[in-house]
Every structure is written in C-alpha cells, then in structure tokens.
TrEMBL record:
Residues 1-11 have a biased composition (Polar residues). The chain crosses the membrane at residues 145-162, 174-195, 207-225, 255-276, 283-303, 323-342, 414-437, 443-464, 476-500, 512-535. The keyword Repeat does not apply. It is found in: Membrane. Belongs to the SLC26A/SulP transporter (TC 2.A.53) family. GO terms for cellular component: membrane. Residues 1-33 are annotated as: Disordered. This is Sulfate transporter 1.3. It is a multi-pass membrane protein. The lineage of its organism: Eukaryota, Viridiplantae, Streptophyta, Embryophyta, Tracheophyta. It holds the Pfam family STAS. Gene3D superfamilies: STAS domain (3.30.750.24). Residues 563-685 form the STAS domain.
Length: 694
C-alpha cells in the first residue's frame, strides 16, 4: 500500500469523524454552546455536598432494603468482620495463622525498641500490639495491614512529649500525657472518618512524606548509637550535629567494647537475613524471625557471661517481654522451654533489674487528662501524631489493596484506627498504626484477612501472661540493632531519584523535609514538609499554566506548540489555553498573562504577517470561575477592544457558561463570539486561511 493511499484513507476517516476541516465549497455546521438548564438551588447544593463528602456513595447498599436488612448492613459497615467472616474458611485460616505467627516474631522485639523511642517502658510497646490489633481486626477494611507501634510515630511522640514533660524527672506526668495524646490522636482520626474529611491528609504530598520518613529514619538510627555503643551520657537533642558531638565526645571513655561487639554482630546478622529475604522471596520468613533469634542469642550470651557486670547495658524495666512464636513449632518449643528454664536469675540471687510483673494491659482511663494545663498539650500532640499515623496507615493500606485488587474504604479505615487508639489510650497503649515492614511480611506470608492481626495479638497476650522473665537480660545493643535494621527500609533512595526526575519542586519539598528532620528536629521537618506542600498548592492555584495553541497538520486539532513543534499558528489569530479554574486568587494573573502573550506575539510578528485581530481563549480546562474571574475577563475584553482585538471563547464548560450567562458577560462580547471548539472559532475568524490550507 502506498503512502498516498494511507493518507487518503486516514483523511476520509477524519472527515467522517469531524476532525478535519470542511472541504472547500461545503458549508461548515457550527453547534452553539448551550447554557445548562437552571437547577434547583437545594438540589445543586445537595449534589455538591454529596460529591465532596460522599463521592463513594456509601449508602448505595442500603437502597431498596428492608429495615431489618438495613440494620444488619449498618452493623456490618461498622464491623466489617461480621461480613467477611461468613465466608471464612480453614484454608484462609492456615494462611492467616502462618502470617500472624511470623509478624508476631517480628513485632515483639521491635515493640520493645520502639517504646524506647517514645521514652516509655518496654512493656508499653507490647501493650500497643495487643489491644489495638484486636479492635482493628473487627473494624478495619484492610486485609494486609499489620497494626502496632511504628518507629516514626514513636520518635515523633517521644520528642513532642519530651518538649512538654521530662520523662526522667516526671515519669508519671509523662506517661499520663502520652495516654492523653493517644486518646486525642484516636479522636482526631475517628472524627476525620465520621465527617468524611479524609482528603485532608492528602495535603501532605508523597514527596514530602518520602523526605520526612527518610530524615526520621536517619534521626532514629543516630539515636540508637547510645545503646549500640554503650554510651551512658547522651544528648537529649535529635539533630545530627548534637548527636555526633555527643558520640565522638564520649569516644575515649564512654564506649563499651563488649556492647559494640554484640550490637555489630547482630546488626550484621539482621542485614544478612534481610538480604536473603530480598534475594529469595520464598525465604521471606528469614528476616522476619531474625530479630527474635537475635534477642534470644544475645540474651543467652549476656546471661552465661554476666556481661552486665562488665558494662554492657541491660534493657531496664522490661516487665513484659515476648513469647517465642511457633514459626517452626519444634524449634520454638525447644528454645522457649530451654531459655525459660535457664533464665530464672532471681532464684540464683542475681539482681540485675527490678522485679518483672506479669499480666496484660492495666486500665489507664483514670490517667488521661480531661482537665488542667496538660489537656491542651495532649490535644495538640495527639492531633499531630494522629495525622502522621493516619497518613502512614492510609498509604500502606492503599498500596497492598492495589496489589491484591480490592477496594479500601478510607473513611472506615480512619474510624477503625481512631477507635483502636481511643480504646488503646484507656488500656495503657500509646499511638499505634500500620507498620510497613510488618505489613509487607504479613502480605508475603500469605495472609487472607485481618485474622493475622488477631493471631499476632494472641501471641503477644501469651507473652504478657507467661513469658515475662525470659529476656530480662536483653542488652540495649540488640534492641538498637533491631531498630536500625528496621528503619533502614524507610530510606527510599529510588523514590527520591524518581521525584528528582519527574518534578523538581517536589524534590525541593522532599529535601526540605529531610534536612529539616536531620539538622533540626522531627517537628521542624514536619512543619517544613507541610509548608512546602501548601506552598506548592498555592503556587499552582495562583500561577496556573497557560499555553499557546497551534493547528496540528491535516487535522482540526489545536495543541500546545511547545509539545507539538509541527503545530502551526493561524495568521491573525492568537489562541491561548488556560489550564486552571479562574478564581480570585489567580484571575488578575490570568488576565495579565494573556495580555503578555499578545504583546510577545506582536513583538515577534514579522512584517509580512498579518496583525492579530482575534484572541481565542480555549476554556476546556477551566472547570469553574467566580465573580473575580468574570471581572478579569471583562477587563481583558476592554483592554483588547483598545487594541482592536476581538475576544473569543472556545468550549466553556457548563458551570462556566452558566455563570457567564448570568453575569451578562455573554451579552457583552456577543453570543456569536462563543464557540463549541477552537476549530469552529478559527473558522469563523479566518475562514479564507482555512480554505487555503485544506
């Protein structure tokens, strides 16, 4: 087939679809832009509210249902477990059991370390992996998310609480403030879900989150140098300069070589285990159980060598430690029985730490501040911690939902997370949320439902009830190694590189949040992240993009001449597209930018080219316009009249044309100056030129 034949067939198809200009001698039909029918004000307001807050149409399942059925559906909406449990099977339970045992082996040593980040006793980390997962399993809609304390939220909470109360001098007030902050974190999350305001968390951009998480990971890792190196006197500041000064300032007399050997050995073991898990997906359980094995071996080492007498720091006040989960049943039973037997140090008269009490979460309802000066402080800290926890959990839930191709109800998630933190605050827990590392292990282990969280919670329950004294010899070095190994996953270098390639402004937001956390503090990094995210939104709203359009050869399509260099300008006609709604915040800029386009074109115009007599504004991307925008168009019209240039509008949307009609702007420029397409507008302005081109 020849090239001319191909072009001929293509041209015929374009003519039939209306995408080519009308051939010479034929009459071009131009459809008039219609003004939408006038809507009832109440119906319009109702539709707007529904689209804003109820875009997912949550009441659809309730349509045409009996009252009893509606009641059942309502209860299932609050407690999704009542819906999916009806189809639960033994096969699903097998996957959930394996996943639950696996994430339990990962969460127990992590929780002990994360509690330290929040400046709380280790048992509070375990408490937070017992009650909250049970509440979430009943109310959450994600099948894969694993609930518990996480590093970033623990560090953030610890930093904000420490700014208000010193945990060393006022431990009781500090603990009560932690429970108060957790309570208000839950209230914040649940309120956002009930009022369907979840879109507010989207104001923290992905780039800012990447930078904030990376900076927090560096900060957390640096904080662990205290336990990793055996330093007793350590700065309370979190910025890198203060931390490194404290580390090297104590190098000659404060480092303990036994502690360093333990920490370095098991950190290497954890990193190797992680590498094995990444190289072979079938061995995902290796990095999951590595922290557990590290704690067992390091505790045994300290016990048999009495390294604590040589300066190796022991985990203090570990009132509730862990139950060895049955990843490999026989090995687990042997290990747990053996080490329970050999670690009855109190019977041998060895006094290393205080007596470790057994038992599950005690009630903390009476410890929450509902009045006094700490009420406001707890509220502020809770709102910040709750929003960050919600952002992390939502991102994790969406990621795994897309991987398994199911829908995640964001508002239900917020209510579930809020409910579990409110209940958690009353049962001696601090802020819990979705953990990415545990959720990834949960996913790879083959979880089917939230029952894996219930299994994990049961293992933690057994730990709290029966296995308390097992690891009271656990050195801080191994906890530090576990935390360092865990937070390394938060540093996403590939994501930062991609952000740099795609959007330089996003990269500025990413680096701003990163350096804010590393060189100042967690709250400063968070403030920078939010500020830059809002700055980007304001910049895009107040300075929308505009573009010059040209005609793509052999079509009636007009596109950006920068994107399509072959697109040709129409002599005597300037075509400008506005890529945003026109509001009070950008209306003046849009007017001035269009006039500047006109001035630039007139200055570049060659002597042989005709003078510009028509300015066409392509309004397809203009989704809305307010009174300031209409006023700006009126000013633009008057300015163009003084230059003998006619203003023409192309393809205004229903909202825009309705407002132009009501404001009489349509009458001002003339109804014959508003066209359905750019091609129609150009045909009306320069019909001779179009005929010549065709």
């Amino acid at each position: 087939m020849t090239s001319s034949t191909v072009h001929s067939a293509s041209d015929q198809a374009l003519e039939k679809s209306g995408e080519m200009d009308t051939p010479p001698g034929s009459e071009r039909y131009m459809h008039k832009v219609s003004v939408p029918p006038k809507q009832n004000l109440l119906k319009e307001f109702t539709a707007t509210v529904k689209e804003t807050f109820f875009a997912d149409d949550p009441l659809r399942p309730f349509k045409d249902q009996s009252k009893s059925r509606k009641l059942i559906l309502g209860i299932q909406a609050i407690f999704p477990i009542l819906e999916w449990s009806r189809s639960y099977s033994l096969k699903k339970f097998r996957g959930d059991l394996i996943a639950g045992l696996t994430i339990a082996s990962l969460c127990i040593p992590q929780d002990i370390g994360y509690a330290k980040l929040a400046n709380l006793a280790p048992q509070y980390g375990l408490y937070s992996s017992f009650v909250p997962p049970l509440i979430y399993a009943c109310m959450g809609s994600s099948r894969d998310i694993a609930i518990g304390p996480v590093a970033v939220v623990s560090l953030l909470l610890g930093t904000l609480l420490q700014n208000e109360v010193d945990h060393t001098t006022n431990p009781t007030e500090y603990l009560r403030l932690a429970f108060t902050a957790t309570f208000f974190a839950g209230i914040t999350q649940a309120t956002l879900g009930i009022l369907r305001l979840g879109f507010l968390i989207d104001f923290l951009s992905h780039a800012a989150i990447v930078g904030f998480m990376g900076g927090a990971a560096i900060t957390i890792a640096l904080q662990q140098l205290k336990g990793f190196l055996g330093i007793k006197k350590f700065t309370k500041k979190t910025d890198i300069i203060s931390v490194m000064h404290s580390v090297f300032g104590s190098a000659h007399h404060g480092w303990n070589w036994q502690t360093i050997v333990i920490g370095a050995t098991f950190l290497s073991f954890l990193l190797v285990a992680k590498y094995i898990g990444k190289k072979n997906k079938k061995l995902f359980w290796v990095p999951a159980i590595a922290p557990l094995i590290s704690v067992i071996l390091s505790t045994f080492f300290v016990y048999i060598t009495h390294a604590e007498k040589k300066g190796v720091e022991i985990g203090k006040k570990n009132k509730k430690l862990f139950w060895v989960p049955a990843i490999a049943p026989l090995i687990s039973v042997i290990l747990s029985t053996f080490f329970v037997y050999i670690t009855h140090a109190e019977k041998k008269g060895v006094e290393i730490v205080r007596h470790l009490e057994k038992g599950i979460n005690p009630s903390s309802v009476d410890q929450i501040y509902f009045s006094g000066e700490y009420l406001g402080k707890g509220f502020k800290i809770g709102v910040v911690a709750g929003m960050i926890a919600l952002t992390e959990a939502t991102a994790i839930g969406r990621t795994f939902a897309s991987m398994k191709d199911y829908t995640l109800d964001g508002n239900k998630e917020m209510i579930a997370l809020g409910a579990m933190n409110v209940v958690g605050s009353m049962t001696s827990c601090y802020v819990a949320t979705g953990s990415f590392s545990r959720s990834a292990v949960n996913y790879m282990a083959g979880c089917s439902t939230a029952v894996s969280n219930i299994v994990m919670s049961c293992v933690v329950f057994l730990t709290l009830e029966f296995i308390t004294p097992l690891f009271k010899y656990t050195p801080n070095a191994i906890l530090s190694a576990i935390i360092i190994n865990a937070v390394l996953n938060l540093i996403d270098i590939q994501a930062a590189i991609l952000i740099w390639k795609v959007d330089k402004f996003d990269f500025v937001a990413c680096m701003g949040a990163f350096f804010g956390v590393v060189f100042s503090s967690v709250e400063m990094g968070l403030l920078i992240a939010v500020s830059i995210s809002f700055a980007k939104i304001l910049l895009q709203v107040t300075r929308p993009r505009t573009a010059l359009l040209g005609k793509i050869p052999r079509t009636a399509v007009y596109r950006n001449i920068q994107q399509y260099p072959d697109a040709s300008k129409v002599p005597g006609v300037l075509i400008v597209r506005v890529d945003s709604a026109i509001y009070f915040s950008n209306s003046n800029y849009v007017k001035e930018r269009i006039l500047r386009w006109l001035t630039d074109e007139e200055e570049r115009k060659k002597a042989a080219e005709p003078t510009i007599h028509f300015l066409i504004v392509e309004m397809s991307p203009v989704t809305d316009i307010d009174t300031s925008g209409i006023h700006a168009l009126e000013e633009l019209y008057r300015s163009l009249q003084k230059r003998n240039v006619q203003l023409i509008l192309a393809n205004p949307g229903p909202v825009v044309i309705d407002k132009l009609h009501e404001s009489k702007f349509e009458t001002l420029i003339g109804e014959d100056k508003i066209f359905l397409t750019v091609a129609d507008a150009v045909a009306a302005c320069s019909p001779k030129k179009l005929v010549e081109e065709v």
